Amino acid sequence: MKNYFIKLYTLLFLLFWISYSIKAATYTVTNLNDGGAGSLRQAIADANGNAANAPHTIDMTGITGVINLNSQIDISTGMTILGSGRDNLRVRRSTETGIIFDIIIAQAVSVNFKHLTMSHATTSVHLDISPTVVNSPSVLIDDCIVEENGGNTAAIYWNLYWNLGTLNASSLVITNSILRNNRNTYQLGGALYMRTRNNSNFSYRIENCIIERNEDRFFGGAFYIFCKKGVINNCVFKYNKVQGPSSGPARGGAIRMTGDGIHTINNSTFTQNSTTNVGIGTIAISSGVDLTLNHCTIYDNTAGKGGAIINQTTVPVKINHCIILGNTATADDSENLFGAFSSDNGHNVLGITTGGTLTGTTTGNVTNAIPTDVINTTLQTIGGNPLEVFTLTPTSVAKDLCVDAILSTDQLGVARDNRPDAGAYESPNPEINLQGNSNDIVSGTTSTSLTNDTDFGAILECGTNTISKTYTIQNTGTADLTVNTITITGVDATDFTLSGLPTFPSTIAAGANQTFTVTFDPSATGNRTATITIANNDSNENPYTFAINGNGTADNIDPLIPTLTNVTAQCSVASIPAPTTTDNCSGTITG
Q: Does the N-terminal or the C-terminal CB of the chain have fewer CB atoms within 10 Å?
């Protein structure tokens, strides 16, 4: 019987191990070969064969170099393909034509590409869903480079157009990646083609990407977008081009959008994009597209009409907190805008607006701005972030132009302050904050509180009694805070004394702080009030002021009656002890 249970337990363990082992698995790539054991092709084939237990991981983190493929690799189940770094590992077609990864999934699963370069093909990532499919995969491309692809389709091709049904909620997400030097010799996007017809459950997100030097023959030097909804965040579009034919206009040096979708572009920079042969628009809109741009900078782009944006729909393009200037129209005078535009929040810095009609909120808008007065016209990298920006000139009208923050951070992920700059870049600004007793003191407040030590409490107005409070000046901004003076004014200012002051002007680095002390020594009874003023270089809290108060109280306590010492000595005693007492104001009294 004992042996029976041992065998039973062993069998159950083996069944459990086998069941566990065939679930989601990691397939490790150990060489750069185009087939056979340890190859990328074999690893993906093994993962495809285990679809019931997907998603799987294709682990290429242990290899570096170039994998040359003689034919495409089909992906038919959910998986994550992990490279060893986009600068370390490249997957390409040996003939420089055809597809690298063809996603042939009709399931609601995810396919992820991370940390590798895909290049030298016609299309690096390809998906084309048939009309009868009701489920579509979601795809993520993160920390990758997609480059040097060329042929008759875009480098990344996503087509759900022919599907007439309602698909599941799926997405295409491209983050922290570079799409460059891709060329479509036919039409519809040099780097990216997305077409989903009426499938409202699909969305896209392109974020923290550099999109440069891509080219298309007709529509969208970088992107061709025909989708219901999506967003582009924190991206740089530069040197993209549509090489249109002489017989008709090319559209969208950087982006071509059509269909009736809702799209948003946030915190993005467009420069040196172009259309040739009287092409139209760096961003070209048609067919009912609803587009909003927030905190974008569009400068030095060229098109036949609408050097920055051309809107060929009746739905106004919404622009909020943007810088759009210094672009060129070669066919007319619509160098920046062409068509209908509106604004929900205003506060845009615009160049010449001939050709564009702007409605809605125009509060804070600056027009006919000269580029060199507004921005430093050379792209710059800041703090090692690869996403280049146009910084603002010292006296730029774009600085602190906006009264509210539509977006909490800028293109580089830096926090915007409570008076944000227009455009994609937020200039470094100091931000003063004051605390007492580790609690904030709001600038301009006229009330006091024991909680933040602006109320000193009560103390006798006589004698040497004092109360001291220490305050902390914080710089919560991104640039040096300069404190020029700290003063006390008001009816009872002489009852409060400053100490622990720095040498003025004093500099507080971003993220640092500085303290000073105020001592209360009332000269009379009752409520004693004053105001502290801190002169500084904060953009909207200079000077920083707050009220302080304390209460001087009278001494209404009688002195202690001393106990006299009995003197029993003879008259020859040298001296008689003098009685003493203590008073709250006068101290020790002898007499």
A: N
* 209, 174 contact by CB (below 8 A): yes
- Grouping H, G, I as helix, E, B as strand and the rest as coil, residue 183 is strand
Alpha helices in 476-554 (DSSP H): none
Tokens of 426: 């937020």
For 260, the token pair is: 């009736």
Comparing C-alpha atoms, which of 18, 73, 29 is closest to residue 48? 73
Question: Residue 520 forms beta bridges with which residues?
Answer: 467, 496
Q: How many CB atoms lie within 10 A of CB 558?
A: 9
Task: Enumerate domains of the chain plus CATH numbers.
Answer: 432-553 (2.60.40.10)
CA distance 20 to 366: 65
Which residue in the block uniquely carries the two structure tokens 């909207």?
A: 540
Cis peptide preceding 505, ω within 30 of 0 = yes
296 C-beta neighbours (distance < 10 Å), count: 29
Please say whether the dihedral angle defined by the alpha carbons of residues 551, 554, 556 and 559, taken in this order, is positive or negative: positive
Q: Report which residue type is found at 248.
A: G
Which pTM value belongs to this model? 0.81
pLDDT tier at 357 (50, 70, 90 boundaries)? confident
Going by C-alpha positions, the residue among 69, 84, 74 that lies closest to residue 28 is: 84
172: left (phi over 0), alpha (psi -120 to 50) or beta: beta
Residue 345: CB atoms within 10 A of its CB come to: 18
Q: How many residues does the chain have?
A: 591
Range list of β-strands (E), 308-451: 309-311, 317-320, 323-325, 328-329, 337-343, 349-350, 356-360, 380-382, 385-389, 432-436, 439-441
Give the model confidence (pLDDT) of 203-216 as tens digits: 999 999 999 999 99
- Would you tell me how many other CB atoms lie within 10 Å of the CB of residue 580? 11
User: What residues contact 8, with CB distance under 8 A and at least 6 apart?
Assistant: none
